[in-house]
Amino acid sequence: MERTELNTLGEFGLIDRIKSKFTNKNVETIKGIGDDAAVIDVGDKYMLVTTDILFEGIHFDLSYTPLRHLGYKAVAVNVSDIAAMNGIAKQITVTIGLSNRISVEAIDELYEGIKFACDNYNVDLIGGDTSASASGFVISITATGFVDKDKIAYRNGAKPNDILCVTGDLGAAYFGLQTLEREKQVYLANPNMQPELTEKEYLVGKLLRPEARTDIIHELNELGVVPSSMIDISDGLASELLHICTQSGVGAMVFEDKLPIEDFTMLAATEFNVSPITAALNGGEDYQLLFTVKQSDFDKIKNMSDVLPIGYTTEDKAVLLALNSGGTATIKAQGWNHI
Ligand code: ADP
Ligand code: MG
Fold first, then answer.
1. What percent of the chain has pLDDT over 90?
2. Is the domain of 306 the same as that of 181?
3. Environment of ion ligand 2 (residues, CB < 5 A)
C-alpha cells in the first residue's frame, strides 16, 4: 500500500481530495464543502451550518489562555463563519473533550465565556457532546444560522472591477500571539517574573477575544447592500483573498497603504522586527470580513466607519499588492513575492 505524507497535500489539498469523493444527493443541499458555511434550503430561507474544532497545544495554550476567553472565542469564530455568508447565527452545539487536568471550576469558567458570547450574539446553546480526551482539552462548536435567499454571499461571486473591502484591524492578533509566546518563555526561564502585558493589552485582547463582525452584516442589510463575495479572515488576508479570487475566477489589486493596521500593531511590528504588512497579510486570527461589492453599491457603503476599501478585483488573474515604494508584488498564501 502506498503511503503519502499529509504535508504533500496541505490542508486545502486534503479538503479538495475529500470533496472530490462526494457528490450531494439532496436538492436541499445548495452548497456543500468549499465555503465558510454549508447552505441548506429550508423553505423561506437558507440555513447555514459551520463547524470548527480547537485543540489544546495546536490552537490554544492553556498556560496563557483563560478558559472564559476560549469559550467566547470558540463561539465567535463560528458566528464569524455564518456572518461570512451574510447570515446571522442562531444556534450552537458545543462538544468538549476533557483531560483530567480540567476541574469543574474550569468548565464553569469555559461555559461563562460561552454564555457571554451566546448573549452577545443572540445565539442559543442547543446541545453538544461530552467525552474524556487522552490528548489535552478539545472544544468543537457547530453553528447554524439563517440568511434570506437573495442575500447570500458566497466566496465565488466576485466580478472584475468590484471593490474589495475589509472591516479593519489586520495583524493585531498575530502580535498578541507573539507577545504571549514571548512572555511564556520569559516566565519559564524565571517563574518570578511578572508578565509585561499592559502596553500589549490591545493586541492580546484581539487574539484571545476576537469579535465576529455581525454588526457589519446588520449594517449592510440596512443599507440594502449584498456583497458580491465574502469570506472571514481566519488564516490571513492573503490566503482568504486567494480563496475569493480562485473561486470567483478573478484577480485583485490591493494597495499596501490602504491595509488597516493599528498603531499598536505598528509599534509591535518594530519591536518584534516583523514587517507589519507580513502580519496584516499572513498573521491570521483577525476574524474581520473581507468582501467585494459592485462599484454601483460603493456610494451606499462608503460612509460605514469600519468598512475600508483596500483595492479592487481584476479580469487578469494575478493577485497583486501595489507597493508604497512603487511597483507591485504577487500576493501568495504565505508571504508575498516581489516581482
Ligand atoms: P474556514 O476557514 O472558513 O473555517 P475551512 O478552511 O476550515 O473554512 O474549510 C473550508 C471548507 O472545507 C468548508 O466548507 C468546510 O466545511 C470543509 N471541510 C473542512 N474540513 C473538512 C473535512 N474533514 N471533511 C469535509 N469537509 C471539510
Ligand atoms: Mg471562514
1. 88
2. yes
3. 36, 81, 232
